[in-house]
Amino acid sequence: MTERSTTRRRLLGAGCATAAVAAAGCLDRFGSAGSGGGETGGSGERSLRLTLSRRDGSLRDRYVIDIADARSPDAEEAFRTTLEGSAYTTQYRTPFRSTPDDPAYVREDGTYYRLGSVVVDEAAETRPVLRLRDGTRTDDADGSADGDSTTDAIVAEELPESDQRAVEIAHMAARARDDEGGVPWGLVQRGGYVYRSERAVETSRILSEDGPDRVVYREIEYAVEVAEERFYEPIHRATVEPVATSLERMEAILRAKFVDARVNRDALSTDESEVLRSARGDGYDGTHPYSEAYRNVLTALHERAYLDGDVENDAFNDPEHGTGTILYGDEYYEYRLRFTSSSGG
To answer: Where do the record's region annotations for Disordered lie (predicted)?
Structure first.
């Protein structure tokens, strides 16, 4: 039914990681505990929904870019300089904004190139870090309901654009300290916002000598805290590597990199074909214990965690578990798995 793809690894934490045919005990727990199966403590029946979305065109159309459209504004200079045999380096950020898991490819004069970088040194820099503390709702600041604060706090919208972004991100960190919830690590650093752009520092009102002590953002008044801190930042050297000179070879490279599973239409049973046909429409919903056809489809997608383990409580290293790209016949599809309830959750 399938050809196994090893292009993406999912590492699972504790759970019942046994073969599907030997997982009866685990599957019973999986269903009765309400983390992936039929009943959820009396709250209604749970379904595992599979949806398929067709992706038009080739993988080249999606992943091979024009160098002028690269995410980094300096990408074209980095590409030309490296292609000519000279070194091009950037500090902190990668030159093409690409990573091993999310590489960038370009075509130039009939040759396809993979754009990347290597770390060749480090640089020590002192950067301003903005943190927000002691958040208080403005309608509680003076006991009144009109939202007027008794302090000299400045409203974030009155600040320069770079400061507005800094306050927004520092607010996310402050909110996470006070309440449960996520925080966008990568934007938030050291519990606040790090000013790295020279222009942002030069135009900042918050960083000026007479900068505000307090700021209001989304009706919450914060104390402003700015610290100069030492950072050790990587220096990246751009790499431009030729990988293919034909359309077919480039497509094969991208399939090997990005396709998670391959499904042979001719090897499907009638019931398995029906599961995938429904998934291409409004989605296919299966309740525990899953049908043999649905189990076979999940196995074909290499999503055994949904069969063999307590998937909602397992420690996934891959934040995108339950999603991926498949080659179904000769067409590409994005699939998604999620749990729903009888109330349509």
So the answer is: 131-152
Here the tokens at position 59 are 């993988």
Provide the residue type at 255 as one letter.
Answer: R
CB 241 within 8 A of CB 253: no
* Boundary of a domain, candidates 193, 215, 244: 244
The radius of gyration computed from the CA coordinates of the chain, to the nearest angstrom, equals 26
Q: What is the pTM of this model?
A: 0.71
Q: Quote the DSSP letter at residue 229.
A: E
Omega cis (within 30) before 289: yes
Q: Which residue range forms the structural domain that includes residue 165?
A: 124-140+153-232
322 and 178 share one domain: no
Could you give the residue ranges of the DSSP H alpha helices within 38-160?
A: 59-63, 75-83
Tell whether 90 is covered by a domain.
Answer: yes
Number of domains forming the structure of the chain? 3
Residue whose C-alpha is closest to residue 149's, from 164, 135, 163: 135
CB 70 within 8 A of CB 61: no
Name residue 19's beta-bridge partners. Answer: none
Convert the pLDDT of each residue in 295-345 to its tens digit: 999 999 999 888 876 666 655 545 557 899 999 999 999 999 999 886 544
